[in-house]
């Protein structure tokens, strides 16, 4: 893999581990970090040996969201010249990943950090982890996070969560669907191992089609999915 500035990447058998590696800034993401994650994901999409992606983080905070200074002043970010740098949102980066992903959360998730958790197929966290959307206290609003929240909860729940700027705990996060369960390394290893012998083509086509049907009229969805299945069977 390429040398990255804000993340670390490790590939082992069918697993690609991506580690947020900006602990001194609470892993707040910059435009470069977003592009680095996107670069890894596109390489993962093209590597049929990789069947699952793990997202972890260094330091006591999983992700504190967007580093506003670097988005407002590009000069405060450190561009990675070895990759293509696009004007792309973190939510869109996760939409472009066509392999299952698992967030391993051992630190607090704040603001835009929700985009990572909500972008993953599975989220497992330690019981002491807390979550917060503080944007309204800063005179802004969690606009991008709203789009991801709508995938798992009602519009009313999304609005209430965005209006409540305090921390909330693991249990509330699990009840809302933000977290799938308590982090148990043995159970996690079993889940990760379960992907090893899965068809990578079936995984990719399944995830792609699941995302595609959102923009297809209901009357055409089954026709579209049958075409995908027929193409898959034809090899």
UniProtKB/TrEMBL annotation:
Q: Which domain of life is it from?
A: Bacteria
Alphabetical list of Gene3D superfamilies matching this protein? 2-enoyl-CoA Hydratase, Chain A, domain 1
Query: Matching InterPro entries, A to Z?
Result: ClpP/crotonase-like_dom_sf (IPR029045), Enoyl-CoA_hydra/iso (IPR001753), Enoyl-CoA_Hydratase/Isomerase (IPR051683)
What is stated as this protein's family in its record?
A: Belongs to the enoyl-CoA hydratase/isomerase family.
Q: What is this protein called?
A: Enoyl-CoA hydratase/isomerase family protein
